[in-house]
Specification:
Length: 258
């Protein structure tokens, strides 16, 4: 196997098998980063591997982000393989659209475990390695549902609200060590998860409330994540929650395009 050391900054991207995580990994590769693509879906990673034969800037690993020992082992492996760790993107997550009466405690706990605890574990372990260099950036994928109370989002919205607060706390704790922590809060995005979750009625509702009148493409979220990772562009940005939502969060009465 060819050496993966040297030749650009290194980053871990969780949830890299599809959607925002995959778009982010692909963009970072195109910009010269070395990327550890992490996902629980081995088939998705196999498909990505087939598209990048012999690429020594890629490391593909399966991981359950809620498994604390496994997270520590994986982050150590990535740092040792690449010889450094400059960034971490926490894109792994699950979602559900259920009325509060239909939301079980089991679902609620699972949502918190994956979306919040998983984000915490990967971020914490990545920060341990960044500490050695006195620099680094962590970007968490939150959601507009963590900023506004949308229907059917009791578990999902609560988990993403927790990610937002976690981002700000970690930014505070890690700033003295030169480590920046930020989050993106996407609105609806054309990802496989959203396509499975949103009905035609949901799309119509969003269409009435988003000034830009469309869902985002994953690459549009990825470009903001890249900005937040890149120290040459965002070296004085930490603790920020960047809404990438077509104007949804700040909209009142929507302008009629006709």
């Amino acid at each position: 196997m060819a050496s993966r050391e040297g030749g650009g900054p290194a980053v871990i991207v969780t949830g890299a098998g599809s959607g925002i995580g995959r778009a982010t990994a692909e963009l970072l590769l195109a910009r010269g980063w070395r990327v550890a693509l992490v996902d629980r879906d081995a088939k998705a990673l196999d498909e990505i591997a087939s598209q990048h034969p012999g690429n020594t800037r890629i490391l593909l690993r399966t991981l359950d982000v809620t498994d604390e020992p496994a997270v520590g082992t994986l982050v150590n492996e990535v740092a040792e393989t690449f010889g450094r760790l400059d960034g971490a993107v926490n894109s792994a997550g699950i979602a559900a659209d259920k009325h509060v009466f239909d939301t079980s405690a089991e679902l609620f706990r699972r949502m918190l475990d994956v979306n919040v605890v998983g984000t915490f574990l990967v971020g914490r372990e990545a920060a341990r390695h960044m500490l050695k260099a006195g620099r680094g950036a962590i970007v968490n994928v939150a959601s507009i549902s963590g900023l506004r109370g949308s229907k059917g989002r009791s578990a999902y919205g609560a988990s993403k609200g927790a990610v937002i607060n976690l981002t700000q706390v970690m930014a505070n704790d890690l700033a003295p060590h030169g480590i920046r922590v930020n989050a993106v809060a996407p609105g609806p995005v054309e990802t496989p998860m959203v396509k499975n979750l949103h009905t035609a009625a949901d799309r119509a509702l969003y269409g009435r409330h988003i000034p830009m009148k469309r869902y985002a493409e994953p690459r549009e979220i990825a470009s903001v994540i890249h900005f937040l990772l890149d120290e040459s562009q965002s070296s004085y940005v930490t603790g920020e929650i960047v809404a990438v939502d077509g104007g949804y969060r700040g909209a009142g009465i929507i302008t009629d395009p006709t």
